[in-house]
Structures are given as structure tokens and as C-alpha cells.
Amino acid sequence: MNTFYLGIDVGSVSTNLVLIDKNSKVHKKMYVRTQGQPIKILKEGLKALKKSMKEEFRIGGVGTTGSGRQLASVMVGADVVKNEITAHAVAALEYYPDVRTILEIGGQDSKIIIIRDGIVYDFAMNTVCAAGTGSFIDRQASRLNIPIEEFGKYALKSTTPVRIAGRCAVFAESDMIHKQQTGHNLEDIISGLCDALVRNYLNNVGKGKEILEPIVFQGGVAANVGIVAAFERALNKKIHVPENYDVMGALGAAILAREETMKKGTTGFYGFELTERDYKARSFECKDCSNMCEIVEILSDGLPAARWGDRCGKWNESLNQGNIIHLSSETSA
After folding, report:
1. What is the CATH number of the domain that holds 76?
2. Omega of the bond prior to 38 within 30 degrees of 0, cis?
3. Angle at CA of residue 112, ends 81 and 137, nearest 5°
4. Is 290 exposed, middle or buried (0-12, 13-18, 19+ CB in 10 A)?
5. How high is the pLDDT of residue 330?
6. Fewer C-beta within 10 Å: the chain N or C terminus?
7. Is the same domain home to 234 and 258?
8. Same domain for 112 and 214?
9. From 130-134, 155-159, 188-192, 212-216, the region with the lowest mean pLDDT
10. Are 186 and 120 members of one domain?
């Protein structure tokens, strides 16, 4: 029976699952929309993942990442819980050992990771403005009535890209409409939009960063050949897009889980039977002191499975007495 390592990346837009073997070969990957229901979607994703595998296999380890990493960890019994920066860096280094800059653009946020001598040296994230994220391109593609899969191909046909204000998503949209009204062709407008996203990214997320080669581009937006070309024009450098660019966070979590379980010789994975459990999340405010901590509690079949959010450790102690998982801030490092 083959042993695979499971990586789970629960984000605000998508939930990604990856199965790798001991050599980091991807045997299955799955992308599903989170739809604001991470518990429901993760359970459905795990069911679909198991069903899609034609062979018998066992899970040797599981790692979680993304904004919902703590929740996912409680549900699956994760061996490793890591933030997105670490997970993306680990995945990039696995396939590009000499990488020095990682560009990552997803649907709702974007980040840059600076690697020096094989470790994360610096990073920056943008979670405020949509102009530097995939949602910006999705919205404009919808307005132009062009499938997002074709968007980048239009950009490559451009001969004279128009300059579109890209500092703000709202202004960019207004400027795009103005350019349409003044008679610019579609290819040049789309190329201008790609340039605007890249310009926004470099002026905000990449501001003050030394972007050195090799450069790896990750995240769903890396599928857009127009954006890749715009980055290469702006930086005058070659951009590398990994084969599994869309699930690199989950891939990094799986690699970290493999390393961890190989050291300790066992996994905490609950098994795919976990999808039959009833999970619920709720929060409450602790009023025992002036900190007024918001405590997040996960219930499994009606019983507390985990809590986090307390600063003093009070809720930690009550959980430990009942042998319940407690996720401290250290687990997200």
C-alpha cells in the first residue's frame, strides 16, 4: 500500500488539497471554492479526494496552512500547522532550490517572499486593496465579457498597450471604461490592465524589496500568461511558473508534514472517517479581565475539540484537563 502525505490550504477564496509521495511527486490535487463555509467544504473536499484515488493508500502525515489552518488542523489531526509564507517558501525551494524571490498572487491577497541562502529573509503581504490581486482581473474580465482563461492570451496579442491607472481598483475600472470609449482596441486595454496589476503589486507589496533571480511566480494568477509577460517586462527578468503553481501552499504543508512524521514515526491524522463527524465553530468573549479576549471554540459532535484566542492561558488549562487540543500562537509560526 502506498503512503502519501496530505497538504491542506484553507483560504478565504479556495481550499486546496494535495497528496504527495516521499519524493514530493504530486499524485492528486484538488481545488474547491471555500464559499465562506470552510468546515463543510473541507469535509466535501476530503471525501472527493479519497473517492478520486483508484488505489489503496494510507496517509503518512498531514499539514495545514492558510487563514483557516487552525480550524483545519483541529478537524484532521494535523502533524504540522504553518503560515502561508513558510508553506509557499518550502514548496518553492523543493522544486527551485536556488530561488531568491517568490511572487504569489491569489484571489484576495498577494505576497512577496525574499529567499536568501535557502531561508526566508523578508516578506510582505497585501490584503487591503484589490488592485493587486486576482479578483481585480476577474472583475475586469467579467465586465469585458471575456472568459478569465482567455484573458492573458488577449494581452499577448497587444502591440501598443494603453496605460491604465492601477493604484486603485475603482479608479482602474473607471479608466478602463474611458479607454474603451476613446476607441482603444480590446487587446491593448487588457494588456494595460495586466501592466496595471503588476505595477500596483511592485509599488506596494514589492516596494523596497530587492527582487533577484531566480524568480518563481505562484498562486492562481500565475496561470495568466498576460500577467507573467507583464512581470517580465517590468522587471526585465525571467519568471518561472511551477507546474503546480495553483496549490503551492498546500504542497508546502504536505512537504513539512512528511518531514515531521518521518522524524517522529507516526501521524496524528484522524482518518477519512472524520468527514462523518459534525463540526461547528463558535466564539465567545471572555470577560474575566480587561483584555476581553475573543475565544474561538471548535465543537466535534457537540463536544469541545479546541479553543484558541486567550492570552492568559486560562482556557488552555481547562482544555488540557479534558485532553482537548489547544492551539496557541506558536502553532501558526
Report:
1. 3.30.420.40
2. no
3. 105
4. exposed
5. 39
6. N
7. no
8. yes
9. 130-134
10. yes
Alpha-carbon span 69 to 83, nearest angstrom: 8
Torsion 214-220-225-230 (CA) sign? negative
Indicate the pTM of the whole model. 0.82
Q: Are residues 123 and 227 in the same domain?
A: yes
Nearest one of 86, 75, 73 to 327, comparing CA atoms: 73
Answer yes or no: do 74 and 153 share one domain: no
- Domain limits for position 324: 279-332
285 & 272 share domain: no
CB neighbour list of residue 142: distance below 8 Å, 6 or more residues apart: none
147 and 115 belong to one structural domain = yes
